TrEMBL record:
Cofactor(s) recorded in Swiss-Prot or TrEMBL: Mg(2+)
UniProt-listed CDD domains: Trans_IPPS_HH (cd00683)
Family listed: Belongs to the phytoene/squalene synthase family.
Keywords (A to Z) from UniProt: Membrane, Transferase, Transmembrane, Transmembrane helix
Name of this chain's protein: Squalene synthase
Length: 409
């Protein structure tokens, strides 16, 4: 569906889209003057436009620390993902990466497109890192060291069991959750969250990405790297790549549902983590990606399109999440609604239907028991008829407002 069709069907999303576009334009005008900081914030926009938006609401010192933390780990991930690098070269780089962030001259050419630029000029990220406060530097170094060691371990190890899957996701994403909790605490804004809850925040996002990106990952050239655990997928096929072929789509969807059900186990921990946050800026920074994750899982569940292309939340809905997520009533409401959407798609004949239903009902119960569902101000799954008057206004204002959306977010 094109932009015009999406807006006509969901007119309530037009205003948030315009606001998001204007916010993106403002960010581009607020790039710092110093070369190393200008490079860091410019690269952040290029490698993750959505992250560049949500990070802006953080205070200046914490924002700088989170920006550099993200770029350091993105660079580490670029080394891990580059399948053209021989293992005997890649593993030592991953294991020693935490030392390179202190070296103003170090860089390593790998990756493609914007990621190659990041790696070629990584010394500018290191320069910015060295201007952070010591507590921020120590937290970033610790997580980079642990993540690099974990990535190196899985260069030579396949994801066979569900325990392997959880361990890999811990290294590449759970540790991000731990690191962010340390940065929040170092800023003086938040209590230090438990490692367990911090880990779940990362795993929920990572598992969602692994599920959503099946087709892109399996078709990667020169060689795919897949992280769906054999313990799950081998129940449905002899080879992981079999799922992309039409004749196997029944089994493909059953495996997909199994993977989604596995990811849902982390949702309640995520709700607990977010409910303990004190500051609005950090809360929004954490809550927006989590809502997008539960929304994406609801879209992917029982959806064969995962094996044909990209399944993701439409831009207008993402804009609404970014614009209208402000407190836990919004989070509970979103998790409840998207869980209900997922529940409506459960086929009782699916091999994991009972377990999926159990986990969805547990999420909905956690949301309902908060007592905040009736206080939420937004609904992401509203009926279209409610917006008939808005639709008339949209038709009248469409030529003006669409001009602001010509460039993709």
């Amino acid at each position: 569906m094109g932009m015009l069709g999406a807006i006509m069907e969901h007119p309530e999303e037009l205003y948030p889209l315009v606001k998001l576009k204007m916010a993106a334009a403002r960010i581009e005008k607020q790039i710092p003057a110093e070369e190393h900081w200008a490079f860091s914030y410019t690269m952040l926009q290029r490698v993750s436009r959505s992250f560049a938006l949500v990070i802006q609401q953080l205070g200046p010192q914490l924002r700088n620390a989170v920006c550099i933390f993200y770029l350091v780990l993105r660079a580490l991930d670029t080394v891990e993902d580059d399948t053209s690098i021989p293992s005997e070269i890649k593993v030592p780089i991953l294991e020693s990466f935490y030392r390179h962030i202190y070296d103003r001259d170090w860089h390593f050419s790998c990756g493609t497109k914007d990621y190659k630029v990041l790696m070629d000029k990584f010394h500018l990220v290191s320069t910015a890192f060295l201007e952070l406060g010591q507590s921020y530097q120590e937290a970033i170094e610790d997580i980079t060291r642990r993540m690099g060691a974990g990535m190196a371990k899985f260069i030579c190890k396949e994801v066979e069991t569900i325990d392997d899957y959880d361990e890999y996701c811990h290294y590449v994403a759970g540790l991000v959750g731990l690191g962010l909790s340390k940065l929040f605490h170092a800023s003086g804004s938040e209590d230090l969250a438990s490692d367990s809850l911090s880990n779940s925040m990362g795993l929920f996002l990572q598992k969602t990405n692994i599920i959503r990106d099946y087709l892109e990952d399996i078709n990667e050239i020169p060689k795919s790297r897949m992280f769906w655990p054999r313990e799950i997928w081998s129940k449905y096929a002899d080879k992981l790549e079999d799922f992309k072929y039409e004749e196997n789509f029944v089994q493909s969807v059953q495996c997909l549902n199994d993977m989604v059900t596995n990811a849902l186990m982390h949702a309640e921990d995520c709700l607990l983590y977010m409910s303990a946050l004190k500051g609005l800026a950090i809360f929004r920074f954490c809550a927006i990606p989590q809502i997008m994750a539960i929304g994406t899982l609801a879209l992917c569940y029982n959806n064969v399109e995962v094996f044909k292309g990209v399944v993701k939340m439409r831009r207008g809905l993402v804009a609404r999440v970014i614009d209208q997520t402000n407190d836990m009533s919004d989070v509970y409401g979103s998790f409840y609604e998207f869980s209900s959407l997922l529940q409506s798609k459960i086929d009782e004949k699916d091999p994991n239907a009972a377990l999926t239903l159990k986990r969805v009902e547990a999420i909905k119960k956690a949301c309902a028991s908060s007592g905040l569902l009736n206080k939420r101000k937004i609904h992401f799954c509203e009926s279209k008829s409610r917006f008939s008057s808005v639709l008339v206004m949209v038709v009248l204002l469409l030529p003006i407002l669409l001009a602001l959306l010509l460039i993709k977010l």
